[in-house]
Amino acid sequence: MLERLKSLRTLDLEVASRASIAVVVPLVVLVFVGRIDWAAYAAFGAMTSLYGRSEPYRLRARTVSVAAACMLASVTAGLAMSVTEAALPALVLGLVFVITAGILVASTYGLFPGTPIFFVFAYLVCAQVPAPANEVLPRLLVAVASAALAWLLTMSGWAARRLAGDRSGDLFKQLPRTPVLRPAAYRDGQVWFTILQNLVGVLIAGGLALASGIGHPYWAVVSVVAVLPPPRAAHSISRAVHRIVGTALGVMVTALVLLPGPSVWVLIVVIAISQFGAEILIGKHYGAALLFVTPLALTVAHLASPTAVPTLLVDRVVETALGGVVAVLIVLAARGAVRLGERRPA
Asked: How many domains does the chain fold into?
């Protein structure tokens, strides 16, 4: 048991280190070329490294490749919306497509996390960051290069273990995660029920955020997608509570970082530490992980599209609470529907 716990800690450190390197290296390059305003594209490409955790390398290659393709497709869709200055109906249609495709792909290939949270986040942020037509290709190439680096880092353990004679291979033999390939996932009623829940939730939360005039309505949408569970997972209200409380505390941490107006190098260090801490804690306590996830998300958003820090922080708390409440209502409605179905006679 002690040896297994030691292996688990080693795995956490390895995954967290890879994720931090994957996001920091592209950001440092952007600083040197004077385009830190492209930080969002580098960060979203780097999120490829968040997939394939503890999977055998043969299966991990498939998982990470699928995740990279979905991340880049989401970035591309967001860029298309930005450069064409798409109207709200087009943005909503794009969001519906990203959520639907994201859940179908995650269910088909057994991705973890099984929600489209990162795809939705990438699409919405890239859609709201202004992008001139002559910069679409270089911005997209930044995301591609970042995703490629993340892919290589995620698979780097294979080469390292081969060079070391696979002396540490037992780590992955003890902790395998075997993603189940389900080609017929599109026929699963639970998958479509989850898609319906997400679409209803984001339309309600996004509509309320827009009606209230909040400056960053996409945070409410992201909050809904983050709280709602993947198909066949338990519908837990505690996750929404953790997200609201964890985000509020995370905003306080972010305030300590952003309000003094630090240099870009300090912000990159904050991103690296936040990415590392989030990966260490995300599988242990969702609320605690948000102490790192929130500064990470807000710092990346601030680098990509600078805005008044107090406004950014307040919007994040208010919209997260709004999205969390909507998600809770969706969860309660789903529970009620299940119970009603169970009571009906065959």
From this structure: 2
